[in-house]
Amino acid sequence: MLIDYHMHTRLTDGVGEPVEYARVAMERGLDEIGISDHCPTPTFLAECNMKQSDLPAYVAMVSEARRQFPQLNVKLGLEVDFVPGCEPWVRELAGMYPWDYFLGSVHFIGDFPVDRCTEDWANTDVEQRWRQYFDLWGQAARAGVFDSLAHPDLPKKFGFRAKNFDYRPYLKDVTCAIEVSTAGLRKPCREIYPAEEFLTLARQFEIPITLGSDAHIPQDTGADFDKAVALARRCGYNQICRFTQRKRELVPLG
Ligand SMILES: [Zn+2]
Ligand SMILES: [Zn+2]
Fold first, then answer.
1. Ligand closest in space to the Cα of 212
2. Does the reported pTM lie above 0.90?
3. From ligand 2's centre to the CA of 201, what distance in Å?
4. Ligand 2 centroid to 187 CA: how many Å?
5. Ranges of each domain in the chain
């Protein structure tokens, strides 16, 4: 099966509505998609997040895609920023609608924006930032409030990489899935998130995967999924996760 669980709409920093993403998904032969717009955050600010008052419109837009494309499974998800202490809010959010899954993301190290621009990285201590990022990532992985973690090695986005970084300590206690994201191929790093070395280790730790394009325009739905499937297979995966109202099942990859 091919399932794309990461895409954004006009309510945040994407273009278009779920029906348009669903139409492209059908054309590309995907079996299922999930809409995962940036969730509202009451206690910390990220410019591109939804307002809580947008949630009913968001849920209605996903329902409309389900209505127009009954032959495609369209899941209701969210991309949720992880910051320390966010868990009570994420649990509250979980009770508001019949979500299928939450993607957890680390976009900020304190007030340092991990994926904003290359200048941020050119003027920082790269080794230290990677350690700080993965410390937060490890906390997100153990938080018990996410179903999959999006773009796992996001700090490489602009090509600034820590040398000989050891991912193993962070992969030890992961209790959710991780995303294999083709978005990195469209970024300066020109590489799927996570790197092959990371994904090989994740397989050894028996961490399951989801697939995502992180599409911000409908045309990117399922983008480069042939490459994601090939990478996952090389790393030893033959199954991906599917989520229904936050219950996980494993289905064949590809
Ligand atoms: Zn993200
Ligand atoms: Zn995203």
1. 2
2. yes
3. 24
4. 13
5. 3-252
Going by the DSSP 8-state scheme, the letter that residue 195 receives in this structure is P
Query: Ligand 1 centre and the CA of 38: distance in Å?
Result: 8
Distance CA 120, CA 75 (A): 35
Which ligand lies nearest the alpha carbon of 151? 1
* Residue 138 CA: distances (Å) to CA of 134, 143, 240: 6, 9, 21
- Which pLDDT tens digits describe the chain residue by residue (254 residues)? 999 999 999 999 999 999 999 999 999 999 999 999 999 876 555 567 888 899 999 999 999 999 999 999 999 999 999 999 999 999 999 999 999 999 999 999 999 999 999 999 999 999 999 999 999 999 999 999 999 999 999 999 999 999 999 999 999 989 999 999 999 999 999 999 999 999 999 999 999 999 999 999 999 999 999 999 999 999 999 999 999 999 999 999 99
| Residue 88, C-beta contacts closer than 8 angstroms, at least 6 positions apart | none
Q: Say if domain 3-252 classifies as CATH 3.20.20.140.
A: yes
Q: Residue 136 belongs to what H/E stretch?
A: helix 126-142
From CA 101, how far away is CA 104, in angstroms rounded? 10
State how beta strands 239-244 and 247-252 pair: antiparallel
Burial class (CB in 10 A: 0-12, 13-18, 19+), 27: exposed
The token duo for 21 is 């993403």
